[in-house]
């Protein structure tokens, strides 16, 4: 399903996307970061996709372990035929379907689809630009990535970036406090419920609190409101707890 969905938004095949993402996490805000926020908001947002990658990004990117992804035959198939199916999913089908089924004009169908594509790209771009610049740093004030509710709402739960960079293994990409709108997590939870997703990893509340007290900027309690809420077994049903 993810492979098919990936064809509907031209952002490169999953294997390439994951390599850039892993490189971004391992070398955040260094010369090897593909969308290094130190080069400005525009570069981090979309400029990086318009330019050739720097030597450091290419070299460090090649060193990233991708063996798990390369061992997956479906992902290898997608990488190989990406340029055949991506134009179909991103441009042709979303234009032809409204024309055929509800008599939309070519201009309307084409323009609305391009709008959809641009909105999605910009929402995703916000995670690399705005969420790396503006917001609170409840878990680690010494890194650039920040937590912001607006980006989180626009990206369906991906804007709590200080949490995500501090605890990158946590499938929730957020600590669920007051602002718990997180469609991405709910999706993973749904697929865990039907058994398609498994071995989910989450961070214990104790570890989160200890880290926030040690390196956070003090905003965690009053901003995210988790202070008094204790974790329950229900929070981590079926997940692997990392200590
Ligand atoms: Zn990430
Ligand atoms: Zn980031």
Automatic annotation (TrEMBL):
Membrane topology: Multi-pass membrane protein
GO molecular function: iron ion binding; stearoyl-CoA 9-desaturase activity
Every Fatty acid desaturase domain range: 9-168
Top-rank taxon, per record: Eukaryota
Family statement: Belongs to the fatty acid desaturase type 1 family.
Subcellular location field: Membrane
Protein keywords: Fatty acid biosynthesis, Fatty acid metabolism, Iron, Lipid biosynthesis, Lipid metabolism, Membrane, Oxidoreductase, Transmembrane, Transmembrane helix
Name the UniProt record assigns to this protein: Fatty acid desaturase domain-containing protein
A Gene Ontology BP annotation from the UniProt entry: unsaturated fatty acid biosynthetic process
Native source organism of the sequence: Ceutorhynchus assimilis (cabbage seed weevil)
One Gene Ontology cellular component annotation held by this UniProt entry: endoplasmic reticulum membrane
InterPro entries: Acyl-CoA_DS, FA_desaturase_dom
Named cofactor requirement(s): Fe(2+)
Record text about domains: The histidine box domains are involved in binding the catalytic metal ions.
